[in-house]
Design goal:
The complex is a heterodimer of chains A (298) and B (171). Chain A is α+β, with helices and mostly antiparallel strands. Chain A has one domain. Chain A has 9 helices and 13 strands. Chain B has 171 residues and is an all-alpha fold. The termini of chain B are far apart. The chains are: A alpha+beta (298), B mainly alpha (171). At the A-B interface, helix 1, helix 2 and helix 4 of A face helix 1, helix 2, helix 5, helix 6 and helix 7 of B. Chain A: This is CU044_5270 family protein. Chain A: InterPro entries: CU044_5270-like (IPR047789).
Chain lengths: 298, 171
């Protein structure tokens, strides 16, 4: 073996990087991407992103042309079948109003990978502002530990809300839309400024039935939301804009977001699934809490 | 997305040079820099990777003292702290050898530009041309740095005491 082959072999025991080892870096990149102000981006004289902008504009034009005439609040009992994104969201709004999120001492949010079922993150938050999470960096993946903060974010690093703040949000769609948009002064991507905050709200915040319902109705007024089609577990919706389209699967019957390719994190960042994949989301009030793991016993 | 296509190989490269603790930070920093300057580049599938290797090389360069420290530790003790941090069990199976120690001493003694060229080619599998593009130097510079680096490695393997080598004045 010559000197070059020996160098090639040195530290070759270090194996391929596990997908999990990349999650933190992906989250940080997505957060930076999401925080980049829209106006600055539009000025970039780039061939590739420009193609995306043209496509997004064209897509938006189609959606507006087909759906702008629908009233925000359809008459009660006359909910149309879920064919457009707007209708999916309005059906979900009705279900949200009918079905409270359940009861329990802990608001439990579990995110896992759609392909392997491997845990992404899991958190338990109480009404009085305490939170426990796992996995804990540097410890066994089953270890649960107390989190320093119990807030939820409407957008990366902006619009922090406690459980009590969330419970006090407006129940009128327009007022809610205005308030959450104002709480996020820095626009996220070049999507509609209301989109990301409303997505955060319906995806994982423990909002009361009327607030959730208002959030779905407000989301139904946001342009550019398109329906992709019926998929396992619900209806897939998509919003273009930014460097990456956001896809989410809403179950109109339970009003839950069951999967999304991008979600805000409790630490104020953005978690993203690998291209073509989703983060599977479970949210519920529960009394079932594994308890914090003592150091060294995990 | 560029990240999903290339992050795994760049991460492994960063782990090989600096160990697993910092690799995630390096990766995040490199992709953030890439994102900030992306408008200056056209992303062909084949062209993005050398460009990203160049960026992560610059980020790794900020930690060159720590990198050299680990090579010197391996040269001195026969145990590689980077491999041990990656996986204790794997490290236990890697037998200490005089050759590894001498290689590590040689790596510690290389100049920054020499080490970057040598490891982009040996560990990153880049061609000379890609290495030139990654480091934004002429291809002649890549060739001369590589031959200097290989001469030093060959010299170290020729029986010079690795500990003495590592005690040099380069870092």
């Amino acid at each position: 073996m010559n000197d070059f082959d020996l160098i090639k072999k040195l530290r070759s025991e270090i194996g391929e990087s596990e997908p999990e080892a990349l999650d933190g870096a992906r989250e940080r990149l997505l957060t930076v991407m999401a925080r980049t102000p829209a106006r600055k981006r539009f000025r970039l004289p780039v061939a590739l992103p420009l193609a995306g902008v043209v496509a997004a504009t064209a897509a938006a034009a189609v959606v507006i042309a087909t759906s702008s005439a629908t009233p925000v609040n359809p008459p009660a009992g006359d909910t149309p079948p879920p064919l457009s994104a707007r209708n999916v969201l309005l059906v979900a709004a009705d279900s949200a109003e009918r079905t409270p999120l359940g009861s329990g001492a802990y608001w439990h949010v579990r995110k896992e990978k759609d392909d392997s079922g491997r845990l992404f993150t899991e958190s338990w938050t109480t009404r009085d502002g305490q939170r426990w999470t796992r996995p804990v960096p540097g410890r066994d993946r089953s270890a649960v530990s107390k989190a320093p903060s119990a807030g939820y974010y409407l957008a990366p690093g902006q619009g922090e809300l406690s459980v009590k703040d969330i419970e006090a949000l407006p129940t009128d769609p327009e007022a809610l839309k205005q308030q959450v948009t104002e709480m996020v002064p820095e626009a996220v991507d070049h999507r509609d400024p209301a989109f990301f905050p409303l997505l955060s709200l319906i995806a994982e915040m423990p909002a009361p039935a009327k607030v959730r319902s208002a959030a779905f109705r407000a989301l139904a007024t946001v342009p550019d939301v398109q329906r992709v089609g019926t998929v396992e577990g619900g209806e897939e919706l998509m919003v273009r804009g930014g460097d990456r389209e956001i896809r989410l699967v809403v179950d109109p019957e339970t009003s839950r977001v069951v999967r999304a390719n991008m979600l805000p994190t409790v630490s104020g960042g953005v978690a993203g699934a690998k291209w073509g994949h989703f983060i599977k989301l479970t949210t519920e009030w529960t009394d079932d809490f594994p308890g914090a793991t003592e150091r060294g016993t995990s | 997305m560029l990240f999903d296509r290339h992050a795994a190989v760049l991460h492994r490269y960063a782990v090989r040079r600096l160990g697993p603790e910092h690799a995630e930070d390096m990766l995040a920093e490199a992709f953030t820099r890439a994102f900030a300057t992306r408008h200056r580049y056209e992303f062909g599938r084949s062209e993005a990777l050398p460009w990203l290797y160049g960026i992560i090389t610059n980020v790794i360069g900020l930690h060159r003292r720590a990198e050299a420290r680990a090579y010197r530790a391996l040269a001195r003790t026969g145990e590689d702290p980077v491999v041990a941090a990656f996986d204790e069990r794997v490290a236990a199976q890697v037998s200490a050898s005089a050759t590894r120690q001498r290689l590590a001493a040689a790596l510690a003694g290389l100049g920054r530009g020499e080490r970057d060229v040598l490891l982009l080619i040996a560990w990153g599998d880049l061609t000379y041309e890609e290495t030139a593009r990654a480091l934004r130097v002429p291809i002649g510079t890549v060739r001369s740095r590589l031959s200097r680096a290989r001469r030093k490695v060959a010299h170290a393997l020729g029986g010079v005491n690795p500990v003495e080598m590592s005690g040099g004045h380069h870092e």
